[in-house]
Amino acid sequence: MKKYLLGTFLCAFTLISCKTDQKKEGDNASAKAKIENTQKVAPVFKHSLAQWSLHKPFLDGTMNPKNFPQIAKDLGFTGVEYVTQLYPELQDKSDYEEKIMNWAREMKEQSDAAGIDNVIIMVDRDGELADPDNSKREEAIAVHKYWMGAARIIGAHSVRANLFGEEDPKKWHEYSVSSLRELSAYGEKVGVNIVIENHGGWSSDGAKLAAVMTEVDSDYAGTLPDFGNFCVKREGGARWGAPCIEEYDTYKGIVELMPFAKGVSAKSYNFDENGNETKLDYARIMQIVADSGFEGYVGTEYEGPLEDPKEGIALTKALVQKSIDNLK
Asked: Is 222:232 a contact under the CB 8 Å cutoff?
């Protein structure tokens, strides 16, 4: 009888011990899972070069824009963002679709030879997508579709357009939504995004551009938040060049545009002795970018007065990387 009771006690003790060990293991696994779930995974960023950074040597003829992929590669970038207005052959609009496709095939060859990614085509001077004239707006949409076809050829994920045209904000919203709905529907067919940069006028009002994107509601329409282009109005109604008389809050605007971002444009103007941008808080901006969940290419876009723009490009790229390295 004593042996039986002793055996029963030992079995019960063993069972309790096993259950206790299992509970501890379960608690430890649960705690480990909670820790892992609360740990931030560092976002993955890469560096692309916006062609506008070198617009002066391209426009004065000291550099050939067709060599841009190799130039960017030599400067340490793995992606490029083209600017259409820098190619002389594209300024003549006769047989324009054919010219665009020829350009795309040539740049595909150049980028393949350089071993670099084509990221974005930035389209300028090809009609206004918020034009109050219906026929002009339709023409602009048609031309932007050509460029989306070109982006497909070269493997770029997006075409950057502008939303110039109508000055009345309500009508601007209406025309912008209409154009982007048509272009994003086309983009879904060809696998290319249409993206809008805060690039002057109402597009530089973060809330208004975000409202357009919300109503368009397409995975193929998005934004390209530029760190510096938040001037809504300039003196005399000028689009560029004149002093800014109404500027949107940069950081508020970036927060509002990041949920729709397909890329970001790291604009820079001047640097202090420590390599920091004198106007823009890059650490704050890149934290906003990272906190939004965005990953991918960050486009360096130097627009300052340095005689050698390559120096400004290097400073901008270094500042972007320092900001990435110091993310919280």
From this structure: no
Q: Using alpha carbons, select from 258, 326, 321, 269 the residue that is nearest to residue 46.
A: 321
Please answer whether residues 164 and 130 qualify as being in contact, where contact means their C-beta atoms are separated by less than 8 angstroms. Answer: yes
Encode pLDDT of 89-117 as tens digits: 999 999 999 999 999 999 999 999 999 99
What is the spatial order of strands in the sheet that 221-224 belongs to? 221-224, 193-197, 158-161, 117-122, 79-83, 45-50, 296-302, 264-268
For the structural domain made of 47-325, what CATH number should be given?
A: 3.20.20.150
| 129 contacts 165 by C-beta, under 8 angstroms | yes
Look-up: residue for tokens 């696998």? 191
- Give the pLDDT confidence of 226-270 residue by residue, as tens digits: 999 999 999 988 988 899 999 999 999 999 999 999 999 999 999
Q: Which residues contact 276 (CB under 8 A, 6 or more apart)?
A: 282, 319
Q: Could you tell me if 279 and 268 are in contact, meaning their C-beta atoms sit under 8 angstroms apart?
A: no
**25 vs 31: CA distance, rounded Å:** 10
Residue type, 305: P
Phi/psi at 301 (nearest 5 deg)? -135, 90
Contacts 24+ apart (CB under 8 A), 62-68: 66/106, 66/107, 66/110, 67/110, 68/110
Closest CA to 101 of 121, 76, 81: 121
Q: 196 pairs with which residues across the strands?
A: 161, 223
Q: What are phi and psi of 238, to 5 degrees?
A: -65, 150
Query: H or E segment at 24?
Result: helix 2-38
What gap in Å lies between CA 243 and CA 245, rounded to an integer? Answer: 6
> Token digits for 185?
């529907």
